[in-house]
Design a protein that fits this description.
The protein is of the alpha+beta class. It has helices spanning 37-50, 67-77, 87-94, 98-106, 133-144, and strands at 3-6, 13-18, 21-27, 85-86, 119-120. Strands 1-2-3 form a three-stranded antiparallel sheet, covered by helices on one side. Strands 4-5 form a two-stranded parallel ribbon.
């Protein structure tokens, strides 16, 4: 599977492509680099995002998951840059419960691009399954809305 790694402010990440779609973003550096035009486009967009110059990704996404999880992940993509939604908000739009939304968030194979960091609990930040946990979530939210006070 083609992959391309890059250095970012939140650590090294690797983006994976399959059949013309981005299927995963993982923390760490892949041993084998076999980039493609799509992966180079993803790297350029991620660089622009981390530089504060990109507010919406324009990449074909193909995350593997159940129909329900894909519906939740689409709802995450609909959250505007610099804004957050609660697990309850996402459950209202995608169906299910706040708990099932949290489980779908935790299994999101394309974090950052599918912005699961924008989902918070009603009284606190909730969780974050990416490397660095809540520190990474706080960093991403501060990047997008630097004037916001984070929990």
């Amino acid at each position: 599977m083609p992959s391309l790694s890059m250095h970012t402010p939140i650590g090294d990440i690797t983006v994976f492509e399959e059949d013309g779609g981005i299927v995963a973003l993982e923390w760490g550096w892949a041993g084998v680099q076999n980039g493609s035009p799509l992966l180079h486009r993803a790297r350029d967009q991620l660089d622009a995002y981390f530089d504060g110059q990109l507010k919406a990704f324009d990449l074909p996404l193909a995350p593997a998951g159940t129909p329900y999880r894909r519906k939740v992940w689409q709802a995450l993509c609909d959250i505007p840059y610099g804004e957050t939604r609660t697990y309850i908000d996402i459950a209202r739009s995608a169906g299910g419960s706040p708990r099932s939304v949290g489980q779908a968030n935790g299994s999101n194979p394309i974090p950052i691009i599918v912005p699961c960091h924008r989902v918070v609990a009603t009284t606190h930040l909730g969780g974050y399954s990416g490397s660095g946990g809540l520190d990474t979530k706080r960093w991403l939210l501060a990047l997008e809305a630097p004037e916001t006070t984070l929990l």
